[in-house]
Write a structure and sequence with these properties.
The chain has 11 helices and 23 strands. Strands 1, 2, 3, 7, 8, 9, 10, 11, 12, 13, 19, 22 and 23 form a 13-stranded antiparallel sheet that branches. Strands 4, 5, 6, 14, 15, 16, 17, 18, 20 and 21 form a 10-stranded antiparallel sheet that branches. This is aminodeoxychorismate synthase. Keywords: Aminotransferase, Transferase.
Length: 447
C-alpha cells in the first residue's frame, strides 16, 4: 500500500490566508469549519488544480454517475496516511451535489423551472490538500503518492509565502428581493396543509428564494458572510465564469469514517434574543416545544430508515436526541443517528440511499419532494444539496447546503425555508424562512 507524504506549514486557525494563495486557480475549493469563532468543526480542507472535473450529465442516472465517481477514485489509487497522522483526506473527490441531483436517483416530476442552469453535481479529483487540524493546532500539506516532486515543491513554496492582502470587492446592484410575496407563500402553505390533512404526508420543507444582480469577487462576499455567521460546515467552491458556491451551513449530512456512519439532522429553530434574558427564553422555548420535538423525531425516524438501507442490520442507533446548538443568528434542535456500513457497501452507496437529506425534504421523503416540485416555482439548485469530500480510503464528510448562496451569471441567489406540519401557522413559517437568512442578506447589502 502506497503512503501519502505530509509537509507541515505554520498553523493558521483561519483558512482565508492560505486560500487567498489559490483563490484564482482552477477548481479552487475550501471546506471550512468556521474557526476561530465557530467551535464544533475540527478540520479545514482546501485544494485547487484538480486532475479531472466531473459533472453529472442532464439525463445520466444517479447510480451511473456514482459509478463514474468510484472509477475516478480507483484511477487515482488507494493510499494511506503515515502512521500516527490523523487527517480526514488522502486525495480524492471534493465538490457538490445539488438538491436536484435527487432527480437522478428518484423519478420526480419536473414542474419547477430550472432557471439557474446549475449542473446537478460537480466534483474535482484532487491529489493534494492543505488540511488544518484545529484540535492539534496544525496546518499540513498532504500529497497523494502520485504527485510529482516538482509539484510538491511548487505547492510548499506557494503556501510558504506571505499571504496576499485581499484587494477585490463585491457588491449588489439591487437589493435582495424574494421571488414569492407573502400572499403566494400563504397559498402554497395552505396547499401543503391540504395534503397533510388528506394523509399524503406529515411534513413538507417549503422554501423561498431571494435574488439580486451583483458584481465583483464572490470570495470577498464569502469572507464577509463568514465573519457575520461562522458555522462548522461552511464552504466555498469556485465555478466557471466567476461563479461560486458560498455555504454557511451549520448542518452535517452524513459522515463516514472507518465504516462508521453519522448524520446530524437539524429540525427546530428560534431566533437569537436581543439580550441575554430574551436569548435564554428563546432557547428554553425551543427545548420545550412539543411541535419542534415532534418534527425532529419525524426526521430522525426517516433517517434511521435511510441509513438502514446501507448499514448493517441492527447497527443503526440514536445516541443524541434534541440537543440545543446555538449560532450567531439562531438556536437549533439537533439529533444524531449513527450506524455501521454493511459489508460490501461504501460511502457512495450511502449517498444513493439517503440523498437528499430528510431534514430538508419532509416525510415521507418522495411524496414531500413531489409537493416541493409542485409548489416551489423554481428548482432549488445548490440549496439543500451537499458539499462533500470523499477520499481514496473511503472517508467522507458532507454538509446539507442550507444558509447557502449561489453566485452565477451576474446574480446571487439565497434560499430560506422550514418544515411545515399540521399545526404550523403560515405567518410564523414565513417569518422563520426570512429569519434564517436575514444575517446573510443584511451582510451582502452592507458590502
Amino acid at each position: 500500500m502506497s503512503t501519502c507524504s505530509v509537509h507541515p506549514l505554520p498553523y493558521r486557525p483561519d483558512p482565508a490566508a492560505y486560500f487567498a494563495a489559490i483563490r484564482h486557480a482552477p477548481g479552487a475549493v475550501l471546506l471550512d469549519s468556521g474557526r476561530p469563532v465557530a467551535e464544533r468543526g475540527r478540520y479545514d480542507l482546501l485544494s485547487a488544480w484538480p486532475l479531472e472535473q466531473l459533472t453529472v450529465l442532464p439525463n445520466e442516472a444517479g447510480e451511473d454517475f456514482l459509478v463514474r465517481l468510484r472509477g475516478t477514485l480507483a484511477r487515482l489509487g488507494r493510499a494511506e496516511l503515515p502512521a500516527a497522522v490523523e487527517l480526514p483526506f488522502a486525495g480524492g473527490l471534493i465538490g457538490y451535489l445539488s438538491y436536484d441531483f435527487g432527480r437522478h436517483l428518484e423519478a420526480l416530476p419536473s414542474q419547477a423551472r430550472d432557471d439557474l442552469q446549475l449542473p446537478d453535481a460537480r466534483f474535482g479529483l484532487y491529489a493534494w490538500a492543505l488540511v488544518s487540524d484545529h484540535q492539534q493546532a496544525t496546518s499540513q500539506l498532504v500529497f497523494h503518492p502520485t504527485v510529482e516532486q516538482a509539484e510538491r515543491e511548487r505547492l510548499v513554496q506557494l503556501f510558504s509565502q506571505e499571504p496576499a492582502t485581499e484587494t477585490g470587492s463585491f457588491q449588489l446592484d439591487t437589493p435582495m428581493a424574494a421571488d414569492l410575496d407573502a400572499e403566494s407563500y400563504r397559498q402554497a402553505f395552505e396547499r401543503i396543509q391540504q395534503y397533510i390533512q388528506a394523509g399524503d404526508c406529515y411534513q413538507v420543507n417549503f422554501a423561498q428564494r431571494f435574488r439580486a444582480s451583483c458584481q465583483g469577487d464572490p470570495w470577498v462576499a464569502y469572507l464577509a458572510l463568514r465573519a457575520a455567521c461562522p458555522t462548522p460546515f461552511s464552504g466555498f467552491q469556485s465555478l466557471p465564469d466567476n461563479g461560486a458556491v458560498l455555504s454557511l451551513s451549520p448542518e452535517r449530512f452524513v459522515r463516514v469514517s472507518n465504516g462508521q456512519v453519522e448524520t446530524r439532522p437539524i429540525k427546530g429553530t428560534r431566533p437569537r434574543g436581543r439580550d441575554a434574558a430574551e436569548d435564554a427564553a428563546n432557547a428554553a422555548q425551543l427545548r420545550g416545544s412539543t411541535k419542534d420535538r415532534a418534527e425532529n423525531l419525524m426526521i430522525v425516524d426517516l433517517l434511521r430508515n435511510d441509513l438502514g438501507r446501507t448499514c448493517k442490520i441492527g447497527s443503526v442507533r440514536v445516541p443524541e436526541l434534541f440537543s440545543l446548538e446555538s449560532y450567531p443568528n439562531v438556536h437549533h434542535l439537533v439529533s444524531s443517528v449513527t450506524g455501521e456500513l454493511a459489508a460490501g457497501r461504501d460511502a457512495l452507496d450511502l449517498i444513493a440511499g439517503s440523498f437528499p437529506g430528510g431534514s430538508i425534504t419532509g416525510a415521507p421523503k418522495i411524496r414531500a419532494m413531489q409537493i416541493i416540485d409542485e409548489l416551489e416555482p423554481t428548482r432549488r439548485a445548490l440549496y439543500c444539496g451537499s458539499l462533500l469530500y470523499l477520499d481514496v480510503r473511503g472517508e467522507m464528510d458532507s454538509s446539507i447546503a442550507i444558509r447557502s448562496l449561489l453566485v452565477k451569471d451576474g446574480q446571487v441567489s439565497c434560499w430560506g425555508g422550514g418544515g411545515i406540519v399540521a399545526d404550523s401557522e403560515w405567518q410564523a413559517e414565513y417569518q422563520e424562512s426570512i429569519t434564517k437568512v436575514k444575517v446573510l442578506l443584511d451582510t451582502l447589502q452592507a458590502l
